[in-house]
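Sample intake sheet
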Amino acid sequence: MLEEWIKQLSIALDKFVHGEQLTEDERIAVASIIYATIKYLDNFDKCNDELKEIEEKCKKKLEEVQKELTDLHKQLEEKEEEVDEKLKTLDNLVKIIESNPRLLPKN
């Protein structure tokens, strides 16, 4: 049944494309296909527009997150430098104390 309908529709579309005379049933079938196609394309355009809006929002959010990540990375580097400086200072203090045992607390 469906295969027959598809075959008839195919024949009707071929006639329509070639400008041949269509029966009333063929005209209805072709008009239905044209209407469905236009409706589908309209829905497709709406969905495409919505997807573009979502894509823009996502790009903007991604840029914000990347900026935050860059800022956090800079903060991390600053903290690492602070820790390195403190470790050097502590290391120097240990060397001073080791070289002067009198500075060690007596137990």
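Comment: The two ends are 102 Å apart (CA to CA). The mean pLDDT is 90.
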